[in-house]
Amino acid sequence: MVVLPTSTGYSYACHALQPKAIDKLYRIKGYTNTKRPLAILCADLAEAAKYCRINDGAFRYIREHGGRYTFILPAVGMLPKSIRQRKELGLRLAEHPIALAVLRELQAPLMLASIPCPEDEDPQDLCNPDLIAELNDARHKSEQAALVVDAGIVERRPSTIVDCCSEEYNVIRQG
Fold first, then answer.
1. For residues 55 and 80, is the Cβ–Cβ distance under 8 A?
2. Beta strand segments in 18-175, E
3. Using one digit for the tens of pLDDT, what is the confidence trace for 49-88?
4. In this protein, which residues make up the domain named YrdC-like (predicted)?
5. Most confidently modeled of 42-51, 71-80, 141-150?
6. Calpha distance 109→93 (Å, rounded)
7. Residue 63 gets which letter from DSSP?
8. Rounded to the nearest 5°, which phi and psi values hold at 44?
9. What's the rounded Cα separation, in Å, for the pair 157 and 134?
């Protein structure tokens, strides 16, 4: 489990094919149920096709929009059982060079989760890796990320979420 920069800011990330890592990510987020949605981050559409059903129309749409989008797609393939039981999966494509380098080295997708903002903090403060490291160190050891990758200030911008599971794509959240 690490914190790394993405096109939408710093995020928790873990190996998407390792059940124990995914369980830790759910614990850190405070989720008691693995049916809560998280997204996988892939290096490219070829990798994404191993985990999501991407028809021709969705393929073109995703290729056009990329980066700061999360695409909800039918789940398929090689994900761990705890994730495989879900019918849909959020997909993001890596744009940040550090996230892309990690994905290429790992040769597997990452599971992503946003970093929750404490009530006494400004959400924009989570652009600062030093503050993120402080917040991480304050957590119980079992809920800490092993590493916070310092890429300097990374703007925090939510992704636009698009449901691509039916013929007509539906924007669920504008980023």
1. no
2. 39-42, 69-74, 88-93, 110-114, 147-148, 160-163, 170-173
3. 999 999 999 999 999 887 789 999 998 877 777 666 678 8
4. 1-175
5. 42-51
6. 10
7. H
8. -160, 175
9. 21
